[in-house]
Amino acid sequence: MNEATMSSLIDMIQDMRTKEKKVEDALEMTWSVYDHYMSELEHIILDSVGMPRDNTVEMTELYGDPEGYGHEDTFCRDIAGDWFFDYSEGELSKEQLIKNVVNWKEFYNNYKG
Question: Among 1, 56, 60, 70, fewest CB within 10 Å belongs to which?
Fold first, then answer.
């Protein structure tokens, strides 16, 4: 996926967040009708750069808690979720989000330690 397409998908996610927030503010309640769609778009973006799917649930079911989290075959996408959240909160620019996603291996290796 090229960066222009990624940028367009990120814009779609942000548009859904904005609409959701407007409804929540107007009705004074939590309204998460777009959550599934936003999550799927995030998965499409992360899949396009080769980031493995999160398998923490499966690994903890196989190896127990906490052993499954530390297993060499476990992969967690939490860091990427943090990037999308930080972008939605205005704490990360779209350019930085795209840079992080494209260069996820470098960030993940530093995150994992």
Answer: 70
